[in-house]
Amino acid sequence: MPPDASGKRRVVSYPIGVGREEYPTPLGSTQITGKRAYPDWRVPESVRRAHALRGDPLPAVVPGGPDNPIGTHVLDLGWPTYIIHSTNKPVGTGLRVTHGCLQLYPEDITRLYTEADVGSAVTIVDQPILAGWQGDQLFLEVHRPLEEHAVTASASEAVAAVALRKALASRGRDDAAVDWARVRTYVQAQAGYPLPVLRDAPDQSTYLAGAPLYVEPVRQAALPEPTQRADAWYLDLGRYSGEDNARKLVAQLRHLGPPVPAWHRPFAGSHEVTAGPFADREHAELIARRIAVELGLHSELKPPSGTDTGA
Predict the structure, then answer these.
(1) Deepest of 33, 48, 94, 141, by most Cβ within 10 A of its Cβ?
(2) What is the CATH number of domain 233-302?
C-alpha cells in the first residue's frame, strides 16, 4: 500500500480464491488497467454450461448487482481475460473455485478497489514456502502446494533451506543459527502460518500460546430469519454434535449465491440444520442440487405437512 503519513508502507494480506485445476490462474507480472463498480458480466459459454450443470443457470449477460457472480467491484488487468473481482459466493474464497481470475471477499475488494490505482503493478506468484525476519526472529511459513505443483518432502526441504539461507545472509548469520530438525517438522506439517526456526526461539506450542489471535466474526448474509410454514418445503441438512459446526454450516449456506435461507436448532442432544422455506418441490430440489455441488452435502426433502410425496 502507499506510504502513510509517517512514510511507512503497509503490507496488507487478503484471502483469495484462485483458478480450478482445469482453469489455472496465470503467473507473472501485469498491471491494473481499469476499475469498474457494479459491472455487467458477459458470461463465457463454457461458464454458462458449467453453471447449468450445477443447477445454477446464468444468462448471457448478468447485470451488475448483488446476484452477479463477479460481485460488486472489478479490477481489470493487462491480461484481457483475467480480472480481480468480488463474488456473490464468499464461501469459495480461499479455495480453487474460479475460471482463472482472482476472487476476494466482498468487504476486501471494496477496500482494495479504493486503495489500488490504475497503473499499479500486479505480480502473481505461487510460493508455498516463505522465510523472513520479524524483529530478531526468523520465521518459516509452509503451505500445502497446489496439486499440480506437489513435490517430495525432500524437495520441499531444499526449497525451505534456500529461502532460509537467503534470509540468514541478509543478517550476516549462518546455518548454525537454525534448528533444522524444526524446519523439517514444519515443512512436513504445512501448517500455513509462520513459525520461528532459530535455535533460541520458542517451540511451536509455546509460540502459538503467546501469539496474538484475531478472529474476524463470520458475516452472515442479511436474510430475514426463516419461518416454519405448514405449506412450504424444507431441506434437512442433518444433525451436528456441536453448535459451532451447525452455526458454521448455516453461515456457509447464507453465503452461497444467491443465499440459501437456513437455521439451526437444538434437537435430541445435537443441533439440526434446516434450509427453507421453499415454495414448491421443484425449488427445493434445485437448492438441494446446488448444496450438493457447492458444499458436497446431501440433504433430504421435507414436504409440507400432510403432503403425499408419491415416494
Answers:
(1) 141
(2) 3.30.70.1070
AA identity, residue 67? D
pLDDT, tens digit, 9 for 90 and up, residues 72-82: 999 999 998 89
Out of 85, 255, 264, 271, the active site residue is 85
Q: Which three cell numbers stand for residue 140?
A: 518459516
Cα separation, 228 vs 232, in Å, equals 8
Given phi > 0 = left and psi -120 to 50 = alpha, else beta, which region is 193?
Answer: beta
Helix/strand/coil percent split, the chain, to 5? 30, 25, 45
Could you tell me the residue ranges of all domains in the chain? 16-124, 129-210, 233-302
Distance in angstroms (rounded) separating the CA atoms of residues 248 and 91: 11
Q: Which stretches of the chain score pLDDT less than 50?
A: 218, 220-221, 311
**85 is known as an active-site residue:** yes
Sign of the CA dihedral 203, 206, 210, 213?
positive
**pTM, to two decimals:** 0.69
Give catalytic status of residue 101 as yes or no.
yes
Computed from CA positions of residues 198, 164, 134, 196, in that sequence, does the dihedral angle turn out positive or negative?
Answer: negative
Are 16-124 and 233-302 equal in CATH topology? no
Q: Write down the CATH number for the domain with range 16-124.
A: 2.40.440.10
